[in-house]
Amino acid sequence: GTPAAAAAPARTPSFDVIAGVNLANIRGDGADGDARTGLVVGVTARIPFAANLAFQPELHFSQKGSRFRDEDFSGTLALSYAELPLHLRYEVPVSGGVRPYLLAGPTLALRTGCSVSGGGISVDCDEIEDFIGSEGDGFGLSIGGGVDFPIGGRTGTVMARYGYGLADLADATTAGNRVIQFGVGLRF
User: Fold this and answer.
1) 3-state secondary structure at position 188
2) 129-161 pLDDT, tens per residue?
3) What is the C-alpha separation between 51 and 9, in angstroms, rounded?
């Protein structure tokens, strides 16, 4: 056991539980709302395949959407997704227990919930399909990074990411999800 070998990242698969917050919005043709704060929770797997490189698939429940207002109406479009980010992970080679990393890759999503509320009413998107469209699936790109660190005999992580939705949210627009995500995790 040399010090360099002790500081090297593990070459066996590992699993994390993560939780965090989304600052989500919808941007594109005809969409100019304010950020909606939502929850993100999930699990990740880290599967090393080369020095400092790993495949990191994840499964999340993620709340997105947007707040909107004009002269006549203000409200919230609340969207929920089951997401499957498929990241390539690069671990920055450093010595010591604190290990920075970078992530990038595609994200697949299945819309699990959708509602519009405001002006004292709340409507499920199924009831206004002409407005929001019938598309429930989505895909996009995710990029970010974080830092792993030792905590109580385990490994903790803090992370930040940006998600860029490539799928149109409604039939009549090219607007998509945009999200800044902050989270923490614990490896098991």
Assistant:
1) coil
2) 555 555 556 899 999 999 999 999 999 999 999
3) 8
- Please answer whether residues 152 and 133 qualify as being in contact, where contact means their C-beta atoms are separated by less than 8 angstroms: no
Collapsing DSSP to helix, strand or coil, 175 comes out as: coil
Residue 151: how many other CB atoms lie within 10 Å: 12
pLDDT tens column, 105-121: 999 999 898 888 877 77
- Note the pLDDT of residue 31: 64
Paired tokens of 17 = 């539980």
Mean residue pLDDT across the chain: 85
> pTM of the predicted model, to two decimals?
0.83
Which class for 149: exposed (0-12), middle (13-18), buried (19 or more C-beta within 10 A)?
A: middle
pLDDT number for residue 130: 53
Quote the CA–CA distance of 100 and 108 in Å, as a whole number: 25
| Residue-by-residue DSSP string for 53-122 | EEEEEEEEEEEEEEEEE-SS-EEEEEEEEEEEEEEEEEE---SSS-EEEEEEEEEEEEEEEEEEEETTEE
Q: Which residue has the higher pLDDT, 178 or 9?
A: 178
DSSP-derived letter for residue 170 is: S
Q: At 127, is the secondary structure helix, strand, or coil?
A: helix
Q: How far apart are CA 161 and CA 135, in angstroms?
A: 25
